[in-house]
Amino acid sequence: DGGITQSPKYLFRKEGQNVTLSCEQNLNHDAMYWYRQDPGQGLRLIYYSQIVNDFQKGDIAEGYSVSREKKESFPLTVTSAQKNPTAFYLCASSTDSYSGNTIYFGEGSWLTVV
Amino acid sequence: AQSVTQPDIHITVSEGASLELRCNYSYGATPYLFWYVQSPGQGLQLLLKYFSGDTLVQGIKGFEAEFKRSQSSFNLRKPSVHWSDAAEYFCAVGQYSGTYKYIFGTGTRLKVLA
Question: Of B42, B49, B104, which is closest to A43 when you measure between CB atoms?
Protein backbone atom coordinates (compact mmCIF):
# COMPACT_ATOMS: atom_id res chain seq x y z
CA ASP A 1 0.00 0.00 0.00
CA GLY A 2 1.18 3.50 -0.79
CA GLY A 3 1.50 5.91 2.03
CA ILE A 4 3.61 8.00 4.36
CA THR A 5 5.48 6.34 7.20
CA GLN A 6 6.71 8.29 10.19
CA SER A 7 8.99 6.92 12.87
CA PRO A 8 9.31 6.68 15.74
CA LYS A 9 5.74 7.09 16.93
CA TYR A 10 6.91 8.20 20.39
CA LEU A 11 10.22 9.82 21.22
CA PHE A 12 11.61 11.23 24.43
CA ARG A 13 14.42 13.71 24.41
CA LYS A 14 16.55 15.16 27.13
CA GLU A 15 17.06 18.89 27.08
CA GLY A 16 20.10 19.83 24.99
CA GLN A 17 19.85 16.84 22.66
CA ASN A 18 19.09 16.82 18.97
CA VAL A 19 16.61 14.27 17.68
CA THR A 20 15.64 13.25 14.17
CA LEU A 21 12.15 12.24 13.07
CA SER A 22 11.93 10.05 10.01
CA CYS A 23 9.43 10.47 7.16
CA GLU A 24 9.31 8.14 4.17
CA GLN A 25 6.73 8.13 1.36
CA ASN A 26 6.19 5.71 -1.50
CA LEU A 27 3.60 7.81 -3.31
CA ASN A 28 6.12 9.20 -5.79
CA HIS A 29 5.26 12.70 -4.60
CA ASP A 30 7.61 15.58 -5.30
CA ALA A 31 6.48 17.86 -2.46
CA MET A 32 6.88 17.04 1.21
CA TYR A 33 6.02 19.01 4.34
CA TRP A 34 6.56 19.01 8.09
CA TYR A 35 3.90 20.41 10.41
CA ARG A 36 3.85 20.87 14.14
CA GLN A 37 0.58 20.44 16.02
CA ASP A 38 -0.10 21.90 19.45
CA PRO A 39 -3.46 21.76 21.24
CA GLY A 40 -5.75 24.56 20.14
CA GLN A 41 -3.32 25.89 17.54
CA GLY A 42 -3.99 23.71 14.56
CA LEU A 43 -1.12 22.82 12.27
CA ARG A 44 1.85 25.09 11.69
CA LEU A 45 4.26 24.63 8.81
CA ILE A 46 7.89 24.03 9.78
CA TYR A 47 9.62 23.24 6.48
CA TYR A 48 8.62 22.13 3.03
CA SER A 49 10.42 20.71 0.03
CA GLN A 50 9.32 20.97 -3.57
CA ILE A 51 11.97 18.70 -5.02
CA VAL A 52 15.04 16.71 -4.10
CA ASN A 53 17.93 18.77 -2.70
CA ASP A 54 15.69 21.78 -2.20
CA PHE A 55 13.69 22.95 0.81
CA GLN A 56 12.27 26.16 2.25
CA LYS A 57 11.44 27.44 5.69
CA GLY A 58 7.86 27.55 6.77
CA ASP A 59 6.30 29.71 9.45
CA ILE A 60 8.11 28.24 12.47
CA ALA A 61 11.47 26.93 11.18
CA GLU A 62 13.64 28.22 14.04
CA GLY A 63 15.25 25.36 15.94
CA TYR A 64 14.56 22.81 13.21
CA SER A 65 16.51 21.49 10.23
CA VAL A 66 15.69 19.19 7.32
CA SER A 67 17.29 17.46 4.38
CA ARG A 68 15.93 16.06 1.13
CA GLU A 69 18.58 13.80 -0.36
CA LYS A 70 16.07 11.34 -1.75
CA LYS A 71 12.61 11.85 -3.20
CA GLU A 72 11.14 9.38 -0.74
CA SER A 73 12.65 10.79 2.43
CA PHE A 74 12.34 14.07 4.32
CA PRO A 75 13.77 13.75 7.85
CA LEU A 76 13.26 16.49 10.42
CA THR A 77 15.86 17.26 13.08
CA VAL A 78 14.70 19.02 16.21
CA THR A 79 17.75 20.78 17.56
CA SER A 80 18.59 21.94 21.06
CA ALA A 81 17.86 25.47 19.83
CA GLN A 82 14.13 24.68 19.74
CA LYS A 83 12.98 25.98 23.10
CA ASN A 84 9.65 24.23 23.31
CA PRO A 85 9.86 21.07 21.22
CA THR A 86 7.24 18.97 22.97
CA ALA A 87 4.54 18.52 20.33
CA PHE A 88 2.96 16.22 17.78
CA TYR A 89 4.77 16.30 14.44
CA LEU A 90 3.11 15.48 11.15
CA CYS A 91 4.78 14.76 7.85
CA ALA A 92 2.81 15.21 4.65
CA SER A 93 3.24 15.03 0.91
CA SER A 94 1.54 16.07 -2.30
CA THR A 95 2.10 15.41 -5.98
CA ASP A 96 3.81 18.73 -6.41
CA SER A 97 3.60 22.22 -4.98
CA TYR A 98 3.01 24.10 -8.23
CA SER A 99 -0.65 23.24 -8.65
CA GLY A 100 -3.46 22.62 -6.25
CA ASN A 101 -3.25 19.08 -5.06
CA THR A 102 -4.42 17.07 -2.12
CA ILE A 103 -1.97 16.86 0.74
CA TYR A 104 -1.69 13.48 2.48
CA PHE A 105 -0.47 12.90 6.01
CA GLY A 106 1.48 10.32 7.93
CA GLU A 107 0.38 9.04 11.32
CA GLY A 108 2.50 11.50 13.26
CA SER A 109 5.27 11.38 15.85
CA TRP A 110 5.01 12.47 19.47
CA LEU A 111 8.08 14.20 20.84
CA THR A 112 8.38 14.81 24.55
CA VAL A 113 11.24 16.62 26.25
CA VAL A 114 12.08 15.19 29.64
CA ALA B 1 -2.74 37.46 5.21
CA GLN B 2 -4.68 34.41 4.21
CA SER B 3 -6.40 32.64 7.07
CA VAL B 4 -8.84 29.91 7.93
CA THR B 5 -11.30 30.30 10.78
CA GLN B 6 -13.17 27.53 12.52
CA PRO B 7 -15.25 29.45 15.04
CA ASP B 8 -16.37 26.45 17.08
CA ILE B 9 -13.65 24.88 19.22
CA HIS B 10 -15.94 22.19 20.60
CA ILE B 11 -19.30 20.86 19.40
CA THR B 12 -21.45 18.25 21.11
CA VAL B 13 -24.28 16.47 19.32
CA SER B 14 -26.42 13.45 20.06
CA GLU B 15 -26.02 10.35 17.98
CA GLY B 16 -28.41 10.49 15.05
CA ALA B 17 -28.60 14.28 15.05
CA SER B 18 -27.45 16.41 12.15
CA LEU B 19 -24.11 18.16 12.17
CA GLU B 20 -22.69 21.31 10.66
CA LEU B 21 -19.11 22.45 11.25
CA ARG B 22 -18.28 25.95 10.13
CA CYS B 23 -15.26 27.11 8.18
CA ASN B 24 -14.52 30.58 6.84
CA TYR B 25 -11.47 31.54 4.85
CA SER B 26 -9.74 34.65 3.73
CA TYR B 27 -8.19 34.31 0.30
CA GLY B 28 -8.32 36.54 -2.76
CA ALA B 29 -8.61 33.96 -5.50
CA THR B 30 -10.75 30.86 -5.76
CA PRO B 31 -9.24 28.59 -3.18
CA TYR B 32 -8.66 24.89 -2.99
CA LEU B 33 -10.58 23.77 0.09
CA PHE B 34 -10.28 20.65 2.20
CA TRP B 35 -11.78 19.01 5.25
CA TYR B 36 -9.73 16.52 7.26
CA VAL B 37 -10.59 14.38 10.27
CA GLN B 38 -8.16 13.38 13.00
CA SER B 39 -8.64 10.70 15.64
CA PRO B 40 -6.62 11.15 18.85
CA GLY B 41 -2.92 10.58 18.32
CA GLN B 42 -3.34 9.88 14.61
CA GLY B 43 -2.64 11.62 11.35
CA LEU B 44 -5.16 13.56 9.31
CA GLN B 45 -7.47 11.75 6.93
CA LEU B 46 -9.00 13.55 3.96
CA LEU B 47 -12.80 13.72 4.11
CA LEU B 48 -13.44 15.78 0.99
CA LYS B 49 -12.05 18.54 -1.18
CA TYR B 50 -13.24 21.31 -3.48
CA PHE B 51 -11.18 22.45 -6.41
CA SER B 52 -13.79 23.67 -8.89
CA GLY B 53 -17.18 22.85 -10.37
CA ASP B 54 -20.19 21.79 -8.34
CA THR B 55 -20.13 23.72 -5.10
CA LEU B 56 -21.65 20.84 -3.13
CA VAL B 57 -19.08 18.11 -2.71
CA GLN B 58 -19.53 14.65 -1.31
CA GLY B 59 -16.93 12.94 0.78
CA ILE B 60 -16.28 9.77 2.66
CA LYS B 61 -18.22 8.57 5.71
CA GLY B 62 -21.40 10.35 4.58
CA PHE B 63 -20.00 13.88 4.87
CA GLU B 64 -20.64 16.71 2.45
CA ALA B 65 -19.56 20.33 2.24
CA GLU B 66 -20.79 23.36 0.35
CA PHE B 67 -18.59 26.10 -1.03
CA LYS B 68 -20.23 29.52 -0.82
CA ARG B 69 -18.08 32.14 -2.45
CA SER B 70 -20.25 35.06 -1.32
CA GLN B 71 -19.81 34.03 2.30
CA SER B 72 -16.22 32.75 1.99
CA SER B 73 -17.38 29.60 3.67
CA PHE B 74 -16.94 25.87 3.27
CA ASN B 75 -19.12 24.26 5.95
CA LEU B 76 -19.07 20.54 6.60
CA ARG B 77 -22.34 18.69 7.12
CA LYS B 78 -23.62 15.25 7.96
CA PRO B 79 -27.34 14.40 8.20
CA SER B 80 -27.01 11.81 10.96
CA VAL B 81 -23.98 11.55 13.21
CA HIS B 82 -22.61 8.22 14.42
CA TRP B 83 -20.66 7.72 17.64
CA SER B 84 -17.59 6.86 15.56
CA ASP B 85 -17.60 10.40 14.13
CA ALA B 86 -16.22 11.75 17.39
CA ALA B 87 -12.88 13.27 16.42
CA GLU B 88 -11.27 16.58 15.56
CA TYR B 89 -12.05 18.18 12.22
CA PHE B 90 -9.79 20.56 10.34
CA CYS B 91 -10.62 22.85 7.47
CA ALA B 92 -7.74 23.82 5.17
CA VAL B 93 -7.09 26.14 2.26
CA GLY B 94 -4.51 25.60 -0.47
CA GLN B 95 -3.00 28.95 -1.32
CA TYR B 96 -0.62 29.85 -4.12
CA SER B 97 2.21 32.32 -3.61
CA GLY B 98 4.90 31.07 -5.95
CA THR B 99 4.27 27.60 -4.63
CA TYR B 100 1.29 25.94 -3.02
CA LYS B 101 1.07 25.92 0.73
CA TYR B 102 -1.76 24.77 2.94
CA ILE B 103 -3.27 26.83 5.73
CA PHE B 104 -5.18 24.97 8.43
CA GLY B 105 -7.85 26.11 10.83
CA THR B 106 -7.45 25.47 14.53
CA GLY B 107 -9.87 22.58 14.45
CA THR B 108 -13.27 21.68 15.89
CA ARG B 109 -13.50 18.83 18.35
CA LEU B 110 -16.71 16.84 17.98
CA LYS B 111 -18.20 14.92 20.87
CA VAL B 112 -21.08 12.53 20.21
CA LEU B 113 -23.53 11.64 22.96
CA ALA B 114 -25.04 8.17 22.94
Answer: B104
